[in-house]
Amino acid sequence: MRKGGRNVVTLIMVLFLVLIAACAPPPEKVTPPPIPEPTPKPEFFLTVTEPADNSIINADKVEVRGRTTPGAVVSVNGELTEVDEEGNFTMIVVLEEGPNIIEVIASDLEGNQESCVLVIIYVP
Amino acid sequence: MKILRTIGILALVAGLVLGGTGSALAKGPPDGPPGGPHSPGKRGLFGTADSAVGYVVTLVTKQGLTIEVTLTDTAKYMVPKETKGPVDRDDFEMILDGAIDGDVTAIVGKRIAVLVTFTNEFTADAIRLMLIPSPDAPPLHAHRVGVVDTFTPGTDGSITIIDKDGISHEFGVSEDTVYRPSAEDDGISELTGTDLIEAIADRCVTVVTRGDPKLPDPIAKAIVRHEELPDWALP
Prior knowledge:
The structure holds two protein chains of two kinds.
Chain A: H1 2-23, E1 46-50, E2 56-57, E3 61-68, E4 73-76, E5 79-81, E6 88-94, E7 98-107, E8 113-122
Parallel strand pairs in A: 2-8
Antiparallel strand pairs in A: 1-3, 3-6, 4-5, 4-7, 7-8
Chain B: H1 2-27, E1 42-53, E2 56-61, E3 66-70, E4 76-78, H2 89-97, E5 111-118, E6 123-131, E7 141-152, E8 157-162, E9 168-173, E10 178-181, H3 193-200, E11 204-210, E12 219-225
Parallel strand pairs in B: 3-6, 4-6, 10-12
Antiparallel strand pairs in B: 1-2, 1-5, 2-3, 5-6, 7-8, 7-11, 8-9, 11-12
């Protein structure tokens, strides 16, 4: 009789443990932290916004404005100009009477290079 | 009542005149003739040479107008990728077809920018004319990036750099060559002699050259020193 009682107690304990295991919330799936995808390097670019190509200018100076990849080296007619952190640059170019050529070149350390040639006419 | 009507008409006319003047001033002189008789004074034209007889070139402008432009012997001529500055008509002829014979038909088909004075409704005399370079023409300036191999500053100096493909490029250096850092100014532009050599030696630089860098001995107009070596230059 004593042995039967012990078996009952053991059975109850086993059932109790099974019940707890069944009621317990499922273990959270451990997902590995996402591996950040390498952000592709922006393609090297150069845009000259001012002046417009083939424009007629009435002043003897013109402001050349544009944007390129940040960190690029920019020259306007061979003169270096500053490029800000966002890649913007600006430079004043003194014009000769009549047709003028404006050549903007941007380059980076990887050897990428873009250029833009504008022709404008200064009419005094 | 009649007085009020007169004042109203006058105000309307004045408004129209002032409004028209304002917009005309804001736009500046138009590119090319508007279609009517041309006011005296200088005008700028862009177009393509359609034909040429003697020194008279028929120019078709961007707006589709046909103007006869005389290439006068007092005008200045520019061929940006071929000459450094303006040349006279004889030199221009030589550049066009290799002969001074009063014939400039070699200009036909070329794009032109020209400052003119109109002599009649559709005829003008050139004051300054430029042949617009074709997109595949060599550049007036260029940048070349590389690691400094040899460097001698000053008059008749030179700099040799090795680019990312391992190719060596030599440039002339003169007293006018400008030295700049790529980032904040660190006084490199003030350095001379040995100090400058030490500042430049074995560093990565961008050389800004005048003229086609593929031609022998182009002159370095500016040298930009970079703070770090790019990946391709690391040992």
